[in-house]
Specification:
Blueprint (H helix, E strand, L loop, with lengths): L16 H14 L6 H12 L3 H147 L1 E3 L6 H9 L4 H12 L11 E3 L3
Protein name: LysM peptidoglycan-binding domain-containing protein
InterPro entries: LysM (IPR018392), LysM_dom_sf (IPR036779)
Pfam family, one: LysM
């Protein structure tokens, strides 16, 4: 324990100065004596060897990482030359391999380029030949179509002429038939007029229906003739005025 110093400011002169001095000296004498440097080292050594097994284990665990690092460095240094040679050889092999691969790729690219150019030229030639053939085929097809169109036009005109001729012939025949029919109708009308003139009778003074019927149908058919004359002229009695024109049915 360090000796206690008194602050000058706290010091106050006292009449009992001698008593205070004596008391302070007694306190100083009661403190434990200070150890020397050699004594303190001996004391530490005694504490270290007090637990030897624990100390050995501590040292062992401390040495493990150090030894591992030393072994690792030794192995690395031992394998460094071989690895360096291998790396150099690998670099040389890789360089040669890359050079060969580059040359092969270049040759392959040139061959592919030549093949592509050749293929393009062949395709171009084939396309030109195809276009030429298509043009010739189109020309032939157009000529054929023109001929067919011309033939169709001629056939159409011929058919129209034929139909026109047939129509004209039909019209001519129809006109002839109409003329003939008109002639027959006129003849028939004339005959009917003549027949009508022959089948009429103008009632004269003193004539009766019976007398007229006897003259037209005879005495045997006079009775039925009277009824025919009455029906043909719409008469209801046998009395007919003089001058009446009667139809005499056949």
């Amino acid at each position: 324990m360090a000796r206690k110093k008194r602050d000058k400011r706290d010091y106050t002169p006292s009449d009992d100065y001698n008593n205070d001095f004596l008391q302070t000296e007694d306190e100083f004498n009661n403190e434990p004596p200070m150890l020397s440097r050699s004594d303190s080292r001996k004391k530490q050594k005694k504490g270290f060897f007090k637990y030897p097994l624990l100390n050995i284990l501590i040292v062992f665990f401390l040495l493990i990482p150090i030894v591992s690092i030393i072994v690792f460095l030794a192995v690395q240094n031992a394998g460094a030359p071989d690895n360096q040679v291998k790396e150099e050889n690998n670099v040389t092999v890789d360089s040669n391999k890359k050079a060969k691969e580059a040359a092969a790729e270049k040759e392959k690219a040139e061959k592919e380029k030549e093949a592509a150019a050749k293929k393009e030229a062949e395709e171009k030639k084939a396309a030109e030949e195809k276009a030429k053939k298509d043009a010739e085929a189109k020309k032939i097809a157009d000529a054929k179509a023109a001929e067919e169109a011309k033939a169709a036009e001629e056939a159409r005109k011929a058919e129209e002429a034929k139909q026109q001729a047939a129509q004209e012939e039909a019209n001519r025949k129809a006109a002839e038939e109409k003329a003939a029919a008109d002639a027959r109708a006129a003849e028939e009308a004339k005959k009917q007029q003549e027949q009508a003139a022959k089948s009429t009778h103008t009632v004269q003074s003193g004539e009766t229906l019976y007398r007229i019927a006897v003259n037209a149908y005879g005495s045997a058919g006079a009775a039925s003739g009277v009824e025919k004359i009455k029906q043909a002229n719409g008469l209801s009695s046998n009395n007919v005025p003089v001058g009446t024109v009667l139809k005499i049915p056949q």
